[in-house]
Amino acid sequence: MLKLLRNKKLAKKIWIALAIMVLPAFLFWGIGAMGDNKKNSVYLGEIYGKKISSTEFKDALDAVRNMAIIRYGAKFSEMEKQLNLNAQAWHRLILLREAKMRKITVSDRQVIELIESYPFFQYKGAFDNRIYNDMLQYIFHTQPRTFEEQTRQNLMVSKLYEQVTKGVTVDEKELRQEYIKSRDQEKKGSRFEEKKYLTEKDAFSQALIEEKKQELFAKFAEDLVNKSQIK
User: Fold this and answer.
1) Is pLDDT at 160 greater than 60 in this prediction?
2) Residue 126 phi, psi dihedral angles, 5° rounding
3) What is Dmax (Cα atoms) for the chain?
4) Buried b (16+ CB within 10 A) or exposed e, 188-207
5) pTM for this model (two decimals)
6) Cβ proximity of 12 and 206 under 8 Å
């Protein structure tokens, strides 16, 4: 089943939820399950002066791990030591705090739609509840309720990403310059092929805008981390 995670082509909705996973390491994030009993927990640290319990941190750590499994699939075990999941869990808590401060919410329907869109929970193109429960038990080692809350909060951070980056655009001049640069035509003295450019323009523009969004959000998230005063 891990191979299925790695090899299936992911739907657009999944990449919205995983968008931040392609950013630098300090932006890896996961979403923790809701912990109801934290009064007796040991506190591991503080963010913005708020104490973070061992239960809350473990929830975040479990969620980061689940997100890494989704991303790396069969390669997760060999990648795990390189990911610094502890740091990612702290950074996830910071991003989620910001999403809550902005009153970002996610409906039950949005949670259901995203979970049902994951190809590794499907059989013959349709969501399969048996596969879902089996994979949660044997691959993610997570209860359905917990995974669903993780998914809700994943979408909260995804919406934060959309809010922060919604104004990013690229003009024609920059688009042409970046297109030429990407083809290494300036160095080689190659002739600019207008027809080919026009054919590839829309796809290249979308990719360039997404790259700029990621750079913007990386800076935004880094600033949050710096201001968070993690102790």
Assistant:
1) yes
2) -130, 145
3) 69
4) eeeeeeeeeeeeeeeebbee
5) 0.77
6) no
